[in-house]
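#struct-help
A.M.: can someone run this one for me? Single chain, 354 residues.
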Amino acid sequence: MAGIYVHIPFCVSRCSYCDFFSTTCLDKRHEYVEAVINEWHERQDYLQGEAIQTIYLGGGTPSVLEIEDLKKLLSALPVSTAQEITMEANPGDLTEDKLKAIRAMGVNRLSIGIQCFDDELLKRIGRRHNSQQAIEAVQMAQRVGFDNISIDLIYGLPEQTLEHWKKQVATALRLGVQHISTYCLMIEPSTTLGRQFDAGIIKEVDENSENSMYDYICKATKAKGYYHYEISNFALSNYESKHNSSYWNGTPYIGLGAGAHSYNGHSRQWNISDLKQYLSTRPFEVEKLSETDLYNEKIMLSLRTAKGLQADVVEEQKIRPWIERGFIEKKDNAYVATQKGQHILNTIIEDLMI
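D.P.: on it. C-alpha cells below:
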C-alpha cells in the first residue's frame, strides 16, 4: 500500500509562527493545480504499482482553493481506491455549501487548523479566524456528515499558562471530534515570532510549564477514551490517521507540489520549495538512503509511536540505561517511551542513533 501527499502552499496570510513553505500569491492557484496534475501523471511509476491507500491535501491552506480547482485535482487522483482522503482546512474558509462539495468529492477526513480557542492569542499568532468561527466550523462539518474530524492545537504559546491550556483542551473535547493533534510551539528564527523573540517583545514559555501542558493533554484525552498513538496525536478507537501513520511505519508515499517530499523505501526525493521554479521546471533533489540512514530513521520514527521500536532493531545494552532510569519500558517485543521519556524523546533518539 502507498500514499499520496499534495502540498498546497497558498495562504491568505502567513501565521507568525509558521516555518513551512507557503505563499500568498493566490493568483497562481489554477496554474498550480494543473502543474500538480501533470506531475502526478508523469511520476505514477515512482510507487511501482503500489495501491493507493491514502491521499492527503496539506499546506499551506488547501481550503483556499476554489471548489472547481479542488474538484479537478481530486478527479485526477485515485480517490475511488483510497480508504482515507484528508484535507486540511482553515476555519474561516468553511461554509456548509463548501463542506458539502468537499465531501461529495470523496474527502472523508477533515483536519481543521484551530490552534487555540482564545481570540487574543489567535491574533498574536496571526490566525485569521476567531474562536467562534473555529467552533462553528467543526459543528458545520459534523452537520453535513463528516464523521472523521481532526483538529490541531498548539501549546506553549506566548504568555500561555497551564490553566489557560486546560480551558483550550476542555473546549476541544466538548466538540466531540475523533482526532486531536497537539504541538508545542517552536519559535523559528525566520518567523515573525522569532523576530519578536529576538527583540524581547515575547518570551518563551518555560520548559516545566510546557511539560505540564503536555502531561495534561495526555491525561485529559485518555479520560475521554482517546488513544495516544503517537507523541503528538490522540484518536478515538479506529480513527488514527492512516496517512500520517504511513510516515512512521515506513510505508511508501509520493509527494506532489512545491516542497513536497516522497519516499519509496530506498531513497527520499523532494521538490524545491519555490513556486516559480515548480511551475516552470519542477526541480527536485534525491537522497539515497544507506543502511545507517534507514536504521536511524527507524529509531527516530518508531519511538514516537505507542507501538514503539521492535526490540531486535537496537542492541539491548545500548537502550538499557534509558530503561533503568524509567524513560523507556519494554512491552511485549518492543521498546516504548514512557510519559517521562516523552519529555526528552529527542535526547533519547539522538543517543540511540549511529
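A.M.: thanks! The first strand starts at residue 2 and ends at 8.
D.P.: also worth noting: The chain has a mean pLDDT of 95.
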